[in-house]
Amino acid sequence: MATTWVPDVSPASPFSLANIPFGIITTQDDPTPRAATAIGSHVLDLKALSQSRSLIDGGDQDHVFSQPTLNDFAALGRPVHRQVRQLLQDILAVDTKYADVLKDNESLRQKALIPQSKVKLHLPMRVGDYTDFYAGYNHAYNVGVLFRGPANALQPNYTHLPVGYHGRASSIVVSGTPVPRPWGQILLDPTAEPKQPTTAPCRRLDFELELGCFISKSNSLGDPIKVDNAEEHIFGYVLLNDWSARDIQAWEYVPLGPFNSKNFASTISPWVVLADALEPFRTTGIENKAPRQDYLSESQTETAFDIKLEIDLTTPEGDTTTISKTSSKNLMWSFPQMIAHHTLGGCNLNTGDLLGSGTISGLEPSERGSLLEMNEGGKKDIMIAGMNVRKFLKDGDTITMRGVCGNDGAKVGFGDCRGTILTAIQR
């Protein structure tokens, strides 16, 4: 991979020339939200750059980089995303043939190349709908064992279709946004009869490590997307923390599933990593030995990505512990299969819709993607730095998720997906 002329690009940076993710920024000098890409410890203001040099063939669509979200850019489709990414890589390469565009253009460089420390990152997409799947086989099995035992850990449908539910798009927030502890109905004594809930702040607050997928091209109502065409409807990927109030969920989820236990917040990383940037890291996911329906049968065999994922828990005192390390390859269902199943009945996906993978966990205890699995349903303490223990999250705790793939000098990553728990707002 070529190197870049941009200063201060550490070999360990997740924002190498091999990446070129897209996000939305503002600065103190210009509070207008607009598109940018990350390169090392800097961001490149794409609005400023596109006003000097067209980034899209034809030059009549560069206004997409002046918009407050990436939706209009996403809707242009994967061939355009690929073209823009390649051009930006060429402009930023040390041996660029476009030196006059930015490298040797001091006035534009000073305006467009901004230290990350001087920008504010915003929600990259306008999210119309959010669907959360349950494709992490190991997580589904672990949780099933806790509630139904090993013999009935997975429901009969699990290996036949990508299980999912519709979440709440309005409470999706960008990394760094604080998360107030949610309220809900809770059974303080699940064994008591008759059942009598109380309304109180969540006492078993958890996180869920997921990969999120943004839709680019929409499909028409009644026109399902074929599984082998689904890749053309994918804009890119983010890390997703789908916060979960376990005690609220335990009481409310019968018979229709989670509601207030999930709708209070879902945090995503600020940079959308394009689908093309992850192509070199394709691998096989978890094998599904059950017979699949034709509409879910992919011709592609490497349908997962080997993204190295990790979760840090930082206490209010500032002590940080890495409590999990795993890989995004631990999924049984692929995003193309999720898209094919989502649209099977004719549902129309729209530009900016977000699909969540479901919690990603590996086989080992150190690879689990939620506290519920780590503490085995609240039975075990989790040891963390500063002589502390946790079963679930306390007020002031910060969860930071990271994901990266590739080698030094050519790493592809997402940036932090971070949220701090605030004391519940009084009702």
From TrEMBL:
Pathway, per record: Amino-acid degradation; L-phenylalanine degradation; acetoacetate and fumarate from L-phenylalanine: step 6/6
Entry annotation: catalytic residues: 139 (proton acceptor)
Q: Where does Ca(2+) bind?
A: 132, 208, 210, 242
Q: What class of enzyme is it?
A: hydrolase
Cofactor(s) for this UniProt protein: Mg(2+); Ca(2+)
Q: Which GO-annotated molecular functions does the record name?
A: fumarylacetoacetase activity; metal ion binding
Chemical reaction(s) catalysed:
4-fumarylacetoacetate + H2O = acetoacetate + fumarate + H(+)
* Positions with a binding annotation for substrate: 134, 148, 249, 253, 359
> Do you know which Gene3D superfamilies this protein is assigned to?
Fumarylacetoacetase, N-terminal domain (2.30.30.230), Fumarylacetoacetase-like, C-terminal domain (3.90.850.10)
Q: Which InterPro entries match?
A: Fumarylacetoacetase, Fumarylacetoacetase-like_C, Fumarylacetoacetase_C_sf, Fumarylacetoacetase_N, Fumarylacetoacetase_N_sf
Family, according to the entry, reads as follows:
Belongs to the FAH family.
Output the PANTHER family linked to this UniProt entry: FUMARYLACETOACETASE
Question: What name does the UniProt record give this protein?
Answer: Fumarylacetoacetase
Q: Which organism is it from?
A: Pestalotiopsis fici (strain W106-1 / CGMCC3.15140)
Classification lineage: Eukaryota, Fungi, Dikarya, Ascomycota, Pezizomycotina
